[in-house]
Structure formats: C-alpha cells, structure tokens
Amino acid sequence: MDNLVPNSSFEERDECDPNYGELDDAPPWFSATMATPDVYHRCTVVLDDDCPYPENQTLDPWLFGVPVSAFGCQEPRSGDGYAGFLPYSPGPQAWNDWSEYLAVELQDVLNEGEVYYIRFYLSLAERSSKATSAIQVLLVDSLLSQYSGLNSTIPVAASLSNTPSNFIDEKDDWTLLQWEYVAQGGERYLYIGNFIPNSETPTINAIPSDVIDENHFDDDAYYYIDDVYIGQTPVSVSEDIVERVRVFPNPFQSSLTVNGFGAETFQIYDAKGVVVLEGDLINSKFDNRINTANLDVGFYLIVIYFENNVEYIERILKW
After folding, report:
1. What CA–CA distance (Å, rounded) separates 255 from 248?
2. Residue 72 and residue 172 in contact, taking contact as beta carbons nearer than 8 Å
3. What CA–CA distance (Å, rounded) separates 142 from 135?
4. What is the model's pTM?
5. What SS3 class is residue 67?
6. Burial of 285 per CB tally in 10 Å (0-12, 13-18, 19+)
7. Tens digit of pLDDT for each residue in 86-124?
8. Structural contact between residues 24 and 182, judged by C-beta atoms closer than 8 angstroms
9. Looking at per-residue confidence, does 168 or 91 come out higher?
C-alpha cells in the first residue's frame, strides 16, 4: 500500500446522523484531546439547499452536511466527505482556550532514514473570522495519552510546521500543505493541529470587507481538511508539465537554475519541511538562476508553482 493513512479522505463512516459529526464517526481517526474535531459527509444532508453563506446564521439541519454545513459551504476535494478542526480558538482566560487535533494510527511504522512525503489539503471555513499559518504535524511512536484530558494546546514540539508567513486564507478552494520527512524510525501515530499556544499563534483577519461581521464565529480559525497522505510518492503532475521544467544542475552547489515555461513562483523545503528559499520566476522560457550559496549540504525539495495551482516537485541535492 502506498498511502499509510487509513480512511485518508474521511469517506468511511460509522453512521450518517445529520446532527452528529465528531471525528470518531470516521474511524480509525480520533480526537487526541477532549476537544471535538468534526467530520462532514453528503450522507448527512437533510435538505439539499444552496449554500446559505453569509446570509443565514441558524443552520442546525445542515450541521455536518456537504457541501452546506454550519460553518459555510465547501465541496470535498475528492469523494463525499472531509473533516474539520479548530487550530485556533482563544478563550477569555488561558484555561478555556480551545485547540483541536486530528489523530490516527498509521497502517505501518515509518522506516528509519527513509524519505516520506506528507501532504493534505485545507480550506478555511467561510464563517471563520481569522486565518492562521500555525498548521503542524506530529509523528510519534506511541500515543500521547497523557494529554487526552486537555481541551487546549498539546505542549510538545511539532515534527513539521507550515511556514509562519504562509497564512491559509483560501475559502473557495483547497490549499495544499506538504513536507518531505526523513523518518527517525518507528513513527506510528499521526497528529495534525497547532502545537503553539493560542496566545502565540499568528493570525490575520479573514472577514471580507463586504461581509457582515456578525455572520462569523468570533476570533476562530476553522479549517476543513481532506486527502491526508503519508507515503513515498511525491505529488504527480502531467507529462506536459514535466516536459516544460528543467532544474539543473542536480546535484548543485552555489546556484540552481530553473527553466519552466509558465512557471510563476518556487519554494525550496529542507528535510524538516521548512521553506528555506522562495521567490518569483520569470514566466517565460528563460532560465531563472537561484542563489543557493547559503544552503547547507543535504537533500531538499523544490516546488515550482504554475497557474491554476499546478505544481512540479523535484528532489534536489546540494553537495
């Protein structure tokens, strides 16, 4: 099997109760704490209405439906379901801050020293008043059962983190987050959430200027999540894109050249999934030379972005 994440797009359900959608209804996913991440599915739809956002506030009949739910309106990236969670929901006092974590046991342990690709897709719910960049991944070899009684931040260091400046604020479509991860060996459990306290979590306003504030949930950043993947296959692209891209030399030293007709921007990730270089590319056939003198020796992942969210990914080595 390639994808080590079971029920990776939250399609399999225990039942289809329109007023029940907690994460454990899509086993083997579970909440890591007392907080309550959600699951959504077409099978829970009561009335097939158009998306009510932002006019209606009372949406009980559609709490966990697809595409209409209490948080807005979103089609799945694939299939008929997805999950939702609050990485940021500050309370008036520190003791009632709220952070939600999705957790699952992988179908096999990760092998020491092997490279794995980790990715999933997020969409900010329409009724979220905030967006954040604090989306993180934790991979461990045993359950974090000592934190099951919390409803706030799990106080551990994440294995992988989104770039702090990369605020996920897209509400109409899905945003890809991805990392390249070198396994320590034995990792069996995956946790997705925000391991930064709410008081330190970076946020931006996510309410459009032409939308009424009262139709949003105060100070919350709520995300839908779909198509969670851990495996050894990078994102595939069309043969047309592959033929249009050249990244050379590889291995490289003080500079790297990218030639990709239609390419717009690039990001280079280190082995921990941190963006170490990024910038614009000339949208033409001409070469783009990237200064890599300050990068350490080792493996990296370069992601080249085209229009319409098309991406080209290649593993590169500095020596």
Report:
1. 9
2. no
3. 21
4. 0.76
5. coil
6. exposed
7. 999 987 555 567 899 999 999 999 999 888 999 999 999
8. no
9. 168
Q: How far is CA 242 from the centre of its chain?
A: 25
Rounded CA separation 134/217 (Å): 19
Find out whether 291 and 224 touch, Cβ atoms under 8 Å. no
Residue given tokens 């495996």 in the structure block = 231
**Dist CA 262 CA 140 (whole Å):** 40
Q: At 213, phi and psi to the nearest 5?
A: -60, -35
**Is the separation of the CB atoms in 168 and 122 below 8 Å?**
yes
The rounded distance, in Å, linking the Cα atoms of 82 and 64 is 10
Least confident piece of the model among 17-31, 95-109, 273-287: 273-287
How large is the average pLDDT for residues 224-250? 81
Sign of CA dihedral 23, 123, 167, 238: positive
Tokens of 113: 């020293």
Neighbours of 39 (CB within 10 A): 26
pLDDT of 59 above 60: no
The tally of CA atoms less than 13 A away on the side-chain side of residue 180 is: 23
Q: pLDDT at residue 159 above 80?
A: yes
Euclidean distance between CA atoms 278 and 208, whole angstroms: 28
